[in-house]
Amino acid sequence: MIKSRISKFGVLATSILAIPALSLAGTPAKESKKIVEKTKESCITGDIGMDAYSQYVFHGITLENQGAILQPYANIYFNLYEGAGFLNNVSLNLGVWNSFHSNHTLASSTRNWFEFDFLAGLSFTFGKYFTLSPGYVAYTSPGDYFSTAHVAQLKLSVDDSDFLGAWALNPYVMVEAELDGKAGNGTDEGFYYEVGIAPGCKAGPVAISLPIKAGFGSNDYYAENAGYGFFSAGVALGYDLAFVPECYGTWTVSASATYFNYGDVNARATSVKNDEVNAVVFGGGLKVAF
What is the DSSP string of 190-212? Predict the structure, then answer.
């Protein structure tokens, strides 16, 4: 009796399982659809990189023009807010920047680690085209080449690409105030001002930028309370390494050449062997953005 019931149950189960197969027999198989979930944009982005220069020029002050100069850096960005109103975006930026020199400019130090900077700032994009960026920078020297300087920055940049298209200038103005210590080469805590543009275009896979800027000082930011610091104009080329898988970030190699015109005071007051008011600085680097 039990064997008979088990046998009947097996026949019934087999019949039930066979129904879907029979119902699909003779009908074309439907193409399976892949479920693609939209990848959410990360609220945290960043970049790391290394630049090499023939000279290290800071705000129109030549700090090194001999030997190898390597400048590694890292930044991380936190997207805090996005909206469609007057305020479009708020982000937080934290970064570190270094400068290593094979040449030891000052006799008081034999270390290669010339400079280490810590940066922290916020960026507020409003009215779609304007970005206001207040920030703080600590300029330090692990090699004891100079005393630590704490400064506050305020930068206003304009995205004019909607109006000028390929001829966009991307203008900006920046003010830097020395809070404690000296970043400039003057004798008192002063102010540094910078204005610039960075028009650019694409030539196939190569991005071309033509940065032009000028720096000025007040309240003894520069030596002898000079007002004019420098003028510079250059060309920078960037090329994305397409063979690197996207999951490893965007890898970009770059090269640049920049002409500098220094104020007479900066040319004389520099601690390196340089009394020229004109110079050309060459550079190259690698950056990974993620």
Answer: -EEEEEEE--EEEETTEEEE--E
